[in-house]
Write a structure and sequence with these properties.
This protein is α+β, with helices and mostly antiparallel strands. About 25% of the residues lie in helices and about 25% in strands. The strands form 2 sheets. An 8-stranded antiparallel sheet has the order 3-4-5-12-11-10-9-8. A 6-stranded antiparallel sheet has the order 6-7-14-1-2-13. Helix 6 crosses helix 7 and helix 7 packs antiparallel against helix 8. The radius of gyration is 21 Å and the shape is elongated. About 40% of the residues are buried.
Length: about 325
């Protein structure tokens, strides 16, 4: 399984339509390709770098891929991804609670970064040690003076030093790392994250203590440590609408068959067969499980994007695709 998984993930590394993420619910590093950039450069093993950042997978032992779909707040779309999960208790992070100097980053993706100093921000997350890296002696000195205190402490001056300096951000997990070399989204970027690799630290989400969104159907006992975000058939990497891509749709449905929940996958097939046979919505009882209900709604949205609208499909959507369940905002990579 590990060799086969490594081969599949390795092949997706150079797919410029796919993105990657590592982090937790509130502290995440994302790697996305940017149209028009030079092709990514492969790393030894399973990884790539571009001029904006990079991603590497080192240890796939115990890893379980979970392919999933989730509702979008927009009724003509849905979300999708593959969560790369480890068992609880095997996450391998340090869970530091204060800013901590780790020394030179010997594991950096590029040779020129291995002498720079790595600092763990001390966010105490179960699946990621969220770090920054710098060779700027002024910033390094200022951060050393703040070590031993949480960066989220109102008295800490660490974030005030970090934000305008734009050091590299490094998300370390047991299975690998993502590095982001672009600027931090904020005043210097017009208040928005740069296109391509970027990071988010959201204290309000960190305070929930969750490892992932409740809308992502991760089986009990598993924790997502990284995410693969294959090409969406309905939106681009910036979350904008696109024409339906039948190839991307078929490719992800194959991933869902291999790595997704078999019962929800079968439910979608049952819905599509009922539509093809002209059956009314009463032919199917609404599932009691929230994720199964979401799968039913997603199947109807997918049928409309794939096959076009119809009077029968409108009846099904009126019966089942109601705005009764919360959905995450569309943001590929989160």
């Amino acid at each position: 399984m590990t060799d086969m998984l490594a081969d599949r993930l390795g092949a997706l590394m150079t797919d410029t339509g796919a993105g990657w993420s590592m982090g937790s619910f509130g502290a995440i590093a994302e790697f996305h390709h940017v149209a028009g950039d030079p092709p990514p450069q492969p790393l030894e093993g399973c990884g790539i770098v571009t001029e904006r950042g990079g991603v590497r997978l080192d240890d796939l032992a115990d890893l379980t891929p979970i392919a999933w779909e989730a509702l979008s707040p927009r009724p003509h779309r849905w979300q999708q991804g593959v969560s790369l999960c480890l068992p609880e208790g095997r996450l391998g992070t340090a869970r530091r609670r204060v800013l901590t100097e780790l020394g030179p980053d010997a594991g950096a993706l590029r040779d020129q970064d291995r002498g720079a100093v790595l600092f763990d921000l001390g966010l105490d997350q179960p699946q990621v040690d969220f770090c920054i890296r710098s060779d700027d002696p002024v910033l390094v000195a200022r951060l050393r003076a703040e070590c031993g205190r949480s960066v989220l402490d109102p008295e800490s001056r660490a974030m005030a030093a970090i934000l305008p300096a734009h050091p590299h951000r490094v998300a370390l997990t047991r299975i690998g790392r993502i590095e982001v070399w672009q600027k931090i989204g904020g005043p210097d970027t017009g208040g928005i994250s740069p296109v391509g690799p970027h990071t988010h630290i959201l204290p309000q989400l960190l305070r929930t203590g969750r490892t992932h969104s409740a809308n992502t159907p991760i089986p009990p006992g598993l924790v997502p440590v990284a995410g693969l975000h294959p090409t969406s058939p309905v939106m681009d990497s910036l979350g904008q609408d696109r024409d339906f891509d039948a190839t991307a749709f078929a490719d992800f449905q194959a991933m869902l068959a291999d790595w997704g929940d078999a019962e929800r996958h079968a439910l979608k097939a049952r819905v599509w067969a009922a539509l093809e046979a002209g059956e009314p919505p009463s032919a199917l009882a609404e599932p009691g499980d929230r994720h199964a209900r979401a799968a039913l709604r997603i199947a109807l949205r997918q049928a409309e994007r794939r096959d076009g609208p119809s009077a029968l499909l409108s009846q099904w959507r009126a019966a089942f695709d109601r705005d009764a369940a919360p959905a995450d905002q569309d943001a590929p990579g989160h």
